[in-house]
């Protein structure tokens, strides 16, 4: 999928964000909670999956240093749901 260690904003913008935009339906996006301090943001969010009725939940931890995002970790409540959505989308575009 799109996990692992990435390097730099450019890679995130060119490789990760396009995949995320194709997989999730952000018209069906919302959040349960956001908490933050000087260096960490924790978010519990949900998003629809593109082309299907399913909605998935995610937990995200962002680390911020000098006003810039230095790491982003995403944890899927039901990773198989997201993996299958990515596989379906890739099969349709093949």
What topology does this entry show?
Elements: H1 8-23, E1 24-36, E2 40-49, E3 55-65, E4 68-76, H2 79-93
Antiparallel strand pairs: 1-2, 2-3, 3-4
Please characterize this protein's 3D structure.
- The protein has 94 residues and is of the alpha+beta class.
- It has one domain (26-93): Nuclear Transport Factor 2, Chain: A.
- Helices cover 33% and strands 46% of the residues.
- The protein has two helices and four strands, in the order αββββα.
- It has helices spanning 8-23, 79-93, and strands at 24-36, 40-49, 55-65, 68-76.
- Strands 1-2-3-4 form a four-stranded antiparallel β-sheet.
- β3 and β4 form a beta hairpin.
Task: Identify the strand order in the major beta sheet.
Answer: 1-2-3-4
Low-pLDDT ranges:
none
In the CATH scheme, what's the topology name? Nuclear Transport Factor 2, Chain: A
Report how far the terminal alpha carbons are from each other: 16 Å
Please tell me the overall pLDDT: 89
The portion of residues assigned to helices is 25-40%
Strand content: over 45%
């Amino acid at each position: 999928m799109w996990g692992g260690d990435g390097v730099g904003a450019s890679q995130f913008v060119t490789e990760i964000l396009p995949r995320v935009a194709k997989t999730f339906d952000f018209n069906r996006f919302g959040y349960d909670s956001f908490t933050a301090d000087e260096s960490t943001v924790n978010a519990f969010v949900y998003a629809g999956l593109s082309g299907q009725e399913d909605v998935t939940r995610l937990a995200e931890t962002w680390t911020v240093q000098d006003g810039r995002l230095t790491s982003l970790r995403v944890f899927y409540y039901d990773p198989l749901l997201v993996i299958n959505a990515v596989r379906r989308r890739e099969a349709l575009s093949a």
